[in-house]
Amino acid sequence: MTAEGTWFGQPRGLTVLFLTNMWEQFSYYGMRALLVYYMTKQLMIGQAQSSFLYGAYTATAYFTPILGGVIADRYLGKRKAIIIGASVMALGHFMMTFEGLFYAALGAIALGNGLFLPSLPSQVGDLYKRDDPRRGWAYNVYYVGINIGGFLAPLICGTLGEVYGWHYGFGAAGIGMLAGLVIYLSGQKYLPPEQPRKTKVERVAVRGFDRRTIFVLIGIGLAVTVFRAAYEQVGNTVALWADSGVDRRAGSFSIPMTWFQSLNPLFVMLLTPPLLAYWRRRAASMPGQSLARRMAFGSLLVGLAYLLLAAVVAVSGSQPAAWAWFLLFFLAFTFGELFILPTGLGLFAKLAPAHLGATTVAAWYLIIFTGSLSAGLVGTLWSRMGHATYFAMLAAIAGVAGAMLLAMGSGVEAAERRNVEMSDSG
Questions:
Q1: 1-188 has CATH 3.30.160.340 classification
Q2: Measuring CA to CA, how many Å separate 334 from each of 76, 129, 339?
Q3: What fold does the segment set 199-258+286-426 form as a domain?
Q4: How far apart, in whole angstroms, are the C-alpha atoms of residue 265 and residue 269?
Q5: What does the H/E/C string look like for the chain?
Q6: Closest Cα partner for 62 from 375, 393, 408?
Q7: 1-188 against 199-258+286-426: fold identical
Q8: Residues 296, 305: Cα–Cα separation, whole Å
Q9: Which residues have a Cβ under 8 Å from the Cβ of 277 and sit 6 or more positions away?
Q10: How far is CA 176 from its chain centroid?
Q11: Tens digit of pLDDT per residue, the chain (426 long)?
């Protein structure tokens, strides 16, 4: 547990952590908003190769946390891992301002992310006792906080990149990462103390993980991998379509293409509070709601959002679609996202055994790695088929993921019960 006292009814450390990650998300999404445009417009890399590089980069950024989580749990501890990781990421963002360092910069960001990413969310769980009723909602609150950075990033970094030059946008992303590091260092007294590290981690893992729970997590991982092949297209092929397929005029003003990427985090912030209130009322009246079914519903909603986009493209033909349809797409897309992604992250943290919090959360990022790599491969099909057909294919991919999660409902519920029993006995 942390230092006494709360902010907004939650441990003060939660505010410190989500502000830290807010600025990390600002830097990540600021760079991501520019990346595919920078490659195709400045570096003159072809669309298929740019889409694959985009997917490969995001996949690598979520592969390194697999190793980073183990390093944090075994050697560095979460705090040192976060500080080192944030520093390396800031360096990488500043390296992006030099064309000749493009690939080295992407590598530095991915390496720093490996230490940073699994350690910070796992500290959220450390703020609460296992029976604290606030624990279940903490990751949704955290998700809102970090999406403030995702909302601001395309508006600031995207505008700087489009209007003044790509490198100004990348530099702003680096400043954001430094801001997150300063906040984290300043809020140390509110953060949970480090758990003592075991000298025989493997033995702890064998005792802490039930085999059936491992199979459940693998099953969730496969389903979310399929889901992310469709989900990750928002910053990839959907962004390419927004550049040429959307009528961005609002009166005499032309909406910058990167601004549309702020819609997703904006809707996260607007939709999460009423959604949490609904879930609380539903939990009070109908306890024991299935998290797997909640995730399945989210995946199906994202599929419906892509079906809407397919219909809009089919009806518009060769004419650009009105930007209001794109706004509606992001509304449905984000609503579905809130049912699946923070729920999945919270579920992985919930089922984590003691002293392996960062390692277990790192397994969630393995899913993002495989999903991002799949998204990069799917993105190469953008130039090979009609856009309406392509978006319909993404809807089908999200639907398959939803069906997989729906089939796992009873297994997830059983794993949660075993986790509670192990906590009570331990």
A1: no
A2: 36, 30, 9
A3: Growth Hormone; Chain: A; (1.20.1250)
A4: 6
A5: CCCCCEECCEEHHHHHHHHHHHHHHHHHHHHHHHHHHHHHHHCCCCHHHHHHHHHHHHHHHHHHHHHHHHHHHHHHCHHHHHHHHHHHHHHHHHHCCCHHHHHHHHHHHHHHHHHHHHHHHHHHHHCCCCCCCCHHHHHHHHHHHHHHHHHHHHHHHHHHHHHHCHHHHHHHHHHHHHHHHHHHHHCHHHCCCCCCCCCCHHHHHHHHCCHHHHHHHHHHHHHHHHHHHHHHHHHCHHHHHHHHHEECEECCEECCHHHHHHHHHHHHHHHHHHHHHHHHHHHHHCCCCCHHHHHHHHHHHHHHHHHHHHHHHHHHCCCCEEHHHHHHHHHHHHHHHHHHHHHHHHHHHHCCCCCCHHHHHHHHHHHHHHHHHHHHHHHCCHHHCCHHHHHHHHHHHHHHHHHHHHHCHHHHHHHHHHHHHHHHHC
A6: 375
A7: yes
A8: 14
A9: none
A10: 17
A11: 444 555 556 788 888 888 898 899 899 888 888 888 889 888 888 888 888 888 888 888 878 887 887 788 788 888 899 999 999 999 999 999 898 899 999 999 999 988 888 788 778 777 777 666 666 667 777 777 677 888 888 889 988 988 888 999 999 999 999 999 999 999 888 887 776 655 554 444 445 556 777 788 888 889 999 999 999 898 788 888 888 888 888 878 888 777 887 888 888 888 888 887 887 787 777 666 678 888 999 999 999 999 999 999 999 888 888 888 989 999 999 999 999 888 887 777 777 665 666 667 777 778 888 888 888 889 889 988 999 999 999 999 999 999 999 888 777 777 666 665 555 555
At 92, list the tokens.
């990488």
Q: pTM score, two decimals?
A: 0.71
CB 129 within 8 A of CB 423: no
Q: Where are the domains of the chain?
A: 1-188, 199-258+286-426
